C-alpha cells in the first residue's frame, strides 16, 4: 500500500533522509520510531505531497505521489503533530467544511456527523467555536473529520501527545479497527510502550537511515533488550553516549 524506494531528502548540507526504502502492506499498523530530527516527519510529508524528495520514489497504492498528488490525497487521511483548525468556525461548521472539500454529499455528512460526534464525545460541543476547545477535544475533532471521507491510508504524526488516558484508548481502538477493516496506517510516536502495544511492525530510523525493521518480537530476538525502549536506546544512542 505504501512503497518507498531509495528515498533521499537534503536541505543544503543536511541529509534528512538517506536512501530510505520501506514497504508497508495493506491492513498493517506500522509504527515509525526515531529521535527528533531522524526523518520521520519528513517521510510522512513526502508521502502527503507536502515535501518533494530530492531523489528516490514514494508510491501510495501503486501511484507515485509526484505524478498524481491530487488522486493520492483523496485516498489518504493525514494528521500532523500540530493540526491546523479554523478557530472561528464552530465544531459543526468545521466538520461540514471538511466534508465539502472531499465532495461528500450532504446527507452523508449529516449522518457521519451524528455518528462520529457521538463516538468522540463531541455532541455537547457541536455549537462551540474551535478556538474554545481543549487540546484533547481538538484532537478528537481532527480524528472525527479525518475519517469522514473513509481514507484507505492514514498518515499520523505523534497522535497521542498531551491526551488523557480515555482519549488515548479511544484512538488506539479506532486505529486497530481501521486496519482490521483493511485500512493501512503509518504513524510516528515517541511513546514506545504504545508502539509496542499496537504495532504490527516497527521501523526505527536514525539520521535518515532505517536501522531496524520487524515485529516487536522479531526485533527483540534479533537485537536483544527487555523492551522496545531498551532496543530503541541501544540503536539510536548518540555518539559518545
Task: Describe the overall structure.
Helix 3 (91-101) packs across helix 4 and helix 3 packs parallel to helix 5. The longest helix is centred in the last third of the chain and has 16 residues, at 165-180. It is built from 9 helices and 10 strands. 37% of the residues lie in helices and 25% in strands. It has a 6-stranded mixed sheet with strand order 6-7-8-3-9-10, sandwiched between helices. Strands 2-1-4-5 form a 4-stranded antiparallel sheet, covered by helices on one side. The mean pLDDT is 91. The chain has 241 residues and is of the alpha/beta class.
* Helical run tally: 9
Helix content: 25-40%
Q: Mean pLDDT score, rounded? A: 91
Helix-strand category: alpha/beta
Rg, Cα atoms, Å: 18 Å
- The general outline is globular
Largest sheet: 6 strands, mixed
Order of helices and strands: EEEHEEHEHHHEHEHEEHH
Q: First CA to last CA: what distance? A: 38 Å
Amino acid at each position: 500500500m505504501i512503497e518507498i524506494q531509495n528515498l533521499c531528502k537534503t536541505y543544503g548540507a543536511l541529509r534528512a533522509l538517506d536512501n530510505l526504502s520501506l514497504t508497508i502492506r495493506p491492513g498493517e499498523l506500522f509504527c515509525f520510531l526515531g529521535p527528533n530530527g531522524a526523518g520521520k516527519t519528513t517521510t510522512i510529508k513526502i508521502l502527503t505531497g507536502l515535501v518533494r524528495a530530492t531523489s528516490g520514489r514514494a508510491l501510495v497504492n501503486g501511484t507515485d505521489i509526484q505524478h498524481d498528488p491530487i488522486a493520492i490525497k483523496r485516498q489518504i487521511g493525514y494528521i500532523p503533530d500540530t493540526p491546523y483548525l479554523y478557530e472561528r468556525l464552530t465544531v459543526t461548521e468545521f466538520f461540514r467544511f471538511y466534508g465539502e472539500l472531499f465532495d461528500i454529499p450532504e446527507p452523508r455528512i449529516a449522518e457521519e456527523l451524528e455518528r462520529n460526534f457521538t463516538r468522540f464525545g463531541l455532541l455537547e460541543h457541536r455549537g462551540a467555536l474551535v478556538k474554545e476547545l481543549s487540546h484533547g477535544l481538538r484532537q478528537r475533532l481532527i480524528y472525527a473529520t479525518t475519517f469522514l471521507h473513509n481514507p484507505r491510508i492514514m498518515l499520523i504524526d505523534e497522535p497521542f501527545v498531551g491526551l488523557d488516558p480515555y482519549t488515548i484508548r479511544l484512538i488506539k481502538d479506532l486505529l486497530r479497527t481501521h486496519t482490521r477493516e483493511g485500512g493501512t496506517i503509518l504513524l510516528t510516536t515517541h511513546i514506545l510502550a504504545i508502539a509496542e502495544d499496537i504495532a504490527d511492525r516497527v521501523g526505527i530510523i536514525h539520521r535518515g537511515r532505517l536501522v531496524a525493521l520487524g515485529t516487536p518480537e522479531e526485533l527483540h530476538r534479533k537485537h536483544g533488550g527487555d523492551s522496545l525502549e531498551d532496543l530503541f536506546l541501544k540503536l539510536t544512542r548518540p555518539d559518545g553516549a
